[in-house]
Amino acid sequence: MMKVPLVDLKAGFFEIKEEVMNQIEEVFSHMNLFLGSNVQAFEKEFSNFCGVNHGIGVSSGTDAIHLALRACGVCKGDEVITVSHTFFATIEAISYTGARPVFVDIDPKSFTMDVNQIEGKLSEKTKAIIPVHIYGHPVDMDPILEIAKKNNVSVIEDACQAHGAKYKGRICGSMGDIGCFSFYFTKNLGGYGEAGMAVTNNEKLANQLKLYRNHGHVSKFDHAVFGYNNRMDEIQATVLRIKLKHLHNKNTCRINFAQKYNQLLEGLDLITPFKANYAEHVFHLYVIRVKEREKLRNFLSQQGVGTGIHYKIPAHRQPACKNFGINSNHLPETEKACEEILSLPMYPELTNDQTSYVAEKVAEFYSKS
Ligand SMILES: *Cc1c(COP(=O)(O)O)cnc(C)c1O
After folding, report:
1. Strand, coil or helix: 283
2. 80 and 130 in contact (C-beta within 8 Å)?
3. Which of 16, 173, 241, 336 is deepest in the core (most CB within 10 A)?
4. Which atom of ligand 1 lies at the shortest distance from residue 195's CA?
5. Which ligand 1 atom is the nearest neighbour of the CA of 60?
6. Residue 343 in contact with residue 285, Cβ under 8 Å?
7. Any residues with Cβ below 6 Å from ligand 1, and which?
8. Distances in Å between the alpha carbon of 85 and those of 113, 115, 176, 247?
9. Which atom in ligand 1 lies closest to the alpha carbon of residue 134?
10. Residue 224: which residues within 8 A CB-CB, separation 6 or more?
11. For 290-336, what is each residue's pLDDT tens digit?
């Protein structure tokens, strides 16, 4: 029996082990551990990759979103429009500011924000919109940018799953006021610890972000605002600089394996991932929709195939959100998706044999049932 895990992080490490270990030793030899030369270089390199002027390295994707909201002036009593179908961190970042998340439903094909529902949720209190480029598929940004401009609200892109994805040729994270990235170790670009980045073309916002990430320091002894300890560390920066060089190739591998899955799964009673005409999807996750999810999951697990569910319980139904008083009847597509989504193994170091094996086993399940 072949073993195919949902993700395999060791495979990627072995390819760059020597370079990484040498660079880590170099960092330790300086003992300049935070916001040093590697962070500065990586901020330049990653913001260049995104085609924006400023990159602010922080300690996680969650912190990037939180600081972005702060920099845009979101505070207690405000409302932030986003989706319930996301990793919970998007909502946590909103909650840190004292603002209230207001959820719009998703488009059932792309699993991203249904942009037609945004205007109905705008209020006097709306300060920001957070579109989430979930699974690596870009959100339909043009309508969002237009609504935001017309109503004077900020757009903060959650691009934590979409490093290198493109919307009409524009890189995800580069279109809103601020784009937020996570470099959590399983992401398309991942460090070997916690890290994140906020990118922006707006110099004023960039300065605010820099203030907030480092205790509000304007100089050694001066604190302009109450900030946070949200600095990026040099070890992560040095690892990420090495891995950024391979990001394009690694994304191409993901896209190729996704295409292979699409072909092999065609004709079965399931829905393979949708890709909008405007989209360059980078397949952080390969998510299918199925009716008998638990049965299929168990069968695949017995066959050595790892699967995941991203995510099983939507944010609005989490106990942590109970005080927001959200009526879940308004999110039928989110509710339905959570019952049917299944993530198949997806990482750049997969092999053709492994992808074929996974697809064969899925087909075998349907031939039996
Ligand atoms: C990973 C992720 C985050 C949070 O990033 P961390 O670096 O883990 O804090 C936020 N939003 C989405 C959609 C994510 O996938």
Report:
1. coil
2. yes
3. 173
4. 7
5. 7
6. yes
7. 60-62, 86-87, 89-90, 132, 158, 160-161, 182, 184, 196
8. 9, 14, 20, 26
9. 13
10. 211, 216, 217, 218
11. 999 999 999 999 999 999 999 999 999 999 998 887 766 689 999 99
Q: CA-CA distances (angstroms) from residue 160 to 117, 155, 188, 199?
A: 23, 15, 9, 12
72: Cβ contacts below 8 Å, ≥ 6 apart: 127, 128, 154, 156, 177, 178, 205
Strands 166-167 and 170-171: antiparallel
pLDDT in the model for residue 327:
66
According to the model, what pLDDT value does residue 328 have? 63
Residue having the nearest C-alpha atom to atom 14 of ligand 1: 160
State both tokens at 365.
Answer: 């399940």
**How big is the CA angle at 320 (ends 295 and 328), to the nearest 5 degrees?**
65
Cis link prior to 311 (omega < 30° from 0)?
A: yes
Q: Check the CA dihedral 356-358-361-367 and report its sign.
A: negative
In the chain, the amino acid numbered 144 is I
In degrees, rounded to 5, the angle at the alpha carbon of residue 54 between the alpha carbons of residues 48 and 58 is 105
Question: 229-242, pLDDT tens digit by residue?
Answer: 999 999 999 999 99
- Say if residue 149 is exposed, middle or buried (CB neighbours under 10 Å; 0-12, 13-18, 19+): exposed
Alpha-carbon distances of 45 from 39, 108, 180, 269, 304, rounded to whole Å: 10, 35, 15, 44, 39
| β pairing state of 126-129 and 79-83 | parallel
Instruction: Record the tokens describing residue 10, joined without a space.
Output: 């060791």
What is the atom index within ligand 1 of the atom nearest the CA of 183? 7
In this prediction, residue 368 carries a pLDDT of 84
Dist. CA 254–CA 83, nearest whole Å: 25
Pocket test for ligand 1, best of 58, 62, 130 (most atoms within 8 A of CB): 62
The closest of 227, 292, 214, 247 to 36, measured between CA atoms, is 214
Summarised one tens digit per residue, pLDDT across range 79-103 is 999 999 999 999 999 999 999 999 9
**Residue 124 predicted with pLDDT over 90:** yes
Q: Is the pLDDT of residue 248 over 70?
A: yes
Provide the b/e sequence for 265-292 (b: ≥16 CB within 10 Å). Answer: beebebbbbbbbeebbbbbbbbbbbbee
With contact defined as beta carbons under 8 Å apart, do 189 and 241 qualify? no
